[in-house]
Write a structure and sequence with these properties.
This protein has 399 residues and is α+β, with helices and mostly antiparallel strands. Among the domains are: 105 residues, Immunoglobulins (Immunoglobulin-like, Sandwich), CATH 2.60.40.10; 118 residues, no CATH class. It has nine helices and 14 strands. The strands form four sheets. Strands 1, 2, 4, 7 and 8 form a five-stranded mixed β-sheet that branches. It has a four-stranded antiparallel β-sheet with strand order 10-11-9-12, covered by helices on one side. It has a three-stranded antiparallel β-sheet with strand order 3-6-5, with no helix packed on it. The longest helix has 27 residues. It is elongated and about 140 Å long.
C-alpha cells in the first residue's frame, strides 16, 4: 500500500504545482539622487534600508534582510576610488572613498537592493559630481590605525566627528578633516578571530594645512618607535587623547608631507552641464568646407614625385651607359657585323682541325695513354681512346 499512496502524493503535488500561478519577483525603481564630493576628502553615502523596504511591494516587515550591490551605470564594477561596505543583510550599507584629481567629473552609479525573503528588487541611480577642493590638497597628513573599530563603525558622521575632536587635541589645530578611511583587511591585515571584542582595525587618514605638532613628531621618532616595539608607551605626552573611545596602534603611525604640484592652467570646473535642468541645444549648421584643394594636394603631389623618380631611373638606366660606343666600332665582337662574326668562328674551327691533323702525323712515340691495353692471359687488346660506354663494358682482367 505504500507504493500506490506515494505515487498518489506525487501526482497531487505535480497537479498543485501546475495549477498554482508562477510568481515573478517585481522590480521597483527609486527616484534619482544627486550627490557631491570633493577631492582630497572622504565621501560617505549611507544606503538606508527604509526607502528600499517601502519600494518593495507588499513588504511591511522592517526586519526583512536586504543586501545592497552597486556598480557603475551599464558597467560591472565600481570606480577605483569607491567601495561598498555592508556588515550584514540587517544593517545599512555605505558607499565611501576619497576621489583624487583624475576623478573629476560626474560618476553615475546604480544601487541594487535585494529582499532575501520575497526576492523583490529595487534600484536607484546615483550621480556623484566630483569637484576640486576649494583650499587644495592638505599638505600635512597623518594616518592612524584604530585597532578597536571596524570600518562600518567609523563611516557614520558622528563617529568621524568624534575622531576629529580627539585628533585636534593631538594636533593642536582646528582645521582638520578626514581624508580617507580604509579597512585593515584591505591593507593586508588578518581576519580577527570570532571572539567578542575582536575588531578588524581601520586606517584613518587625517589632513591639515598646519604643520605637525611636537607631539606627533615625537611619536614617530626612532626612540618612540623602539619603545613601541618593546610594548612600552611612546614618548609623546599626548598619546591618551584618543582614550577611551579609540585604541591607536602607535607603531603604525605615519606622517606624510605632500608637496603641492604646480597646477597647469586649464578650464575651471563649474556646476556642470545642465545641472539646473533644461534641454540641450545643439549648435547650428556649420558652413561647408572646401575640400577640393586638400584632395588634389593629397593625390597629385605623390603622383608627381613618383613620375619624377621614374624619369630619373629611366635616364640612369638607358642614357647613362658607360663604355658603350657606336654600333660597328672596333674593339668589341658585339659591335661586328654578323657575316664577320661567322667568318671568325669558321676560321677558329678550321685552325683547330688543322692542328689536330698535324699532331697525328708527328714522328714521335705515342703517349702511353693512347696505346692499346694488352691482357697477358687472354691476349685481348682494348683501345683506351674508345668511348666511355664501350670501355666500361670491356673487362680488363679475366673473371
Amino acid at each position: 500500500m505504500e507504493g500506490p499512496e506515494l505515487l498518489r502524493l506525487w501526482v497531487l503535488a505535480a497537479l498543485a504545482l501546475a495549477v498554482s500561478p508562477v510568481t515573478v519577483p517585481e522590480h521597483h525603481v527609486l527616484p534619482d539622487l544627486r550627490l557631491s564630493a570633493e577631492t582630497g576628502a572622504i565621501f560617505v553615502h549611507e544606503l538606508e534600508r527604509e526607502p528600499f523596504l517601502e519600494a518593495f511591494s507588499g513588504s511591511e516587515d522592517d526586519d526583512a534582510p536586504v543586501t545592497f550591490r552597486a556598480h557603475l551605470w551599464q558597467r560591472p564594477d565600481l570606480p577605483r576610488w569607491l567601495r561598498l561596505a555592508q556588515r550584514g543583510p540587517g544593517q545599512p550599507g555605505f558607499l565611501y572613498g576619497c576621489p583624487l584629481p583624475p576623478e573629476l567629473g560626474t560618476h553615475r552609479l546604480q544601487v541594487l537592493a535585494y529582499n532575501r525573503r520575497t526576492f523583490a528588487t529595487a534600484s536607484q541611480r546615483l550621480d556623484i559630481g566630483v569637484t576640486p577642493a576649494p583650499g587644495g590638497e592638505a599638505p600635512f597628513q597623518a594616518e592612524f590605525l584604530v585597532g578597536n573599530r571596524d570600518v562600518e563603525e567609523l563611516l557614520p558622521e558622528a563617529a568621524r566627528e568624534m575622531f576629529l575632536e580627539a585628533s585636534a587635541g593631538l594636533w593642536e589645530r582646528g582645521d582638520l578633516h578626514v581624508i580617507n578611511v580604509t579597512s585593515a583587511l584591505d591593507r593586508g591585515g588578518r581576519v580577527p578571530l570570532p571572539i567578542e571584542g575582536r575588531k578588524e582595525g581601520v586606517y584613518v587618514q587625517v589632513g591639515s594645512h598646519s604643520p605637525f605638532s611636537p607631539c606627533l613628531l615625537a611619536a614617530v621618532s626612532p626612540q618612540s618607535r623602539a619603545r613601541c616595539h618593546r610594548g612600552q608607551r611612546p614618548l609623546a605626552s599626548c598619546y591618551d587623547t584618543f582614550a577611551p573611545h579609540f585604541s591607536i596602534r602607535w607603531c603604525n603611525l605615519s606622517l606624510l608631507q605632500v608637496v603641492p604640484s604646480p597646477r597647469t592652467p586649464g578650464p575651471e570646473w563649474g556646476p556642470g552641464v545642465l545641472e539646473g535642468g533644461g534641454d540641450f541645444e545643439p549648435p547650428g549648421d556649420v558652413a561647408p568646407r572646401e575640400l577640393l584643394s586638400p584632395f588634389l594636394v593629397t593625390l597629385l603631389v605623390p603622383l608627381a614625385v613618383a613620375a619624377l623618380l621614374c624619369l630619373l631611373l629611366g635616364h640612369l638606366m638607358c642614357c647613362r651607359r658607360e663604355g658603350v660606343g657606336p654600333r660597328g666600332g672596333p674593339g668589341s665582337m658585339a659591335r661586328c657585323p654578323r657575316s664577320l662574326q661567322l667568318f671568325h668562328h669558321g676560321s677558329i674551327l678550321g685552325d683547330t682541325r688543322e692542328l689536330r691533323l698535324m699532331a697525328g702525323r708527328r714522328d714521335v712515340p705515342r703517349p702511353l695513354s693512347t696505346l692499346p691495353m694488352f691482357n697477358v692471359r687472354t691476349g685481348q687488346r682494348t683501345d683506351p681512346m674508345a668511348s666511355a660506354r664501350h670501355g666500361a663494358r670491356a673487362p680488363l682482367l679475366p673473371p
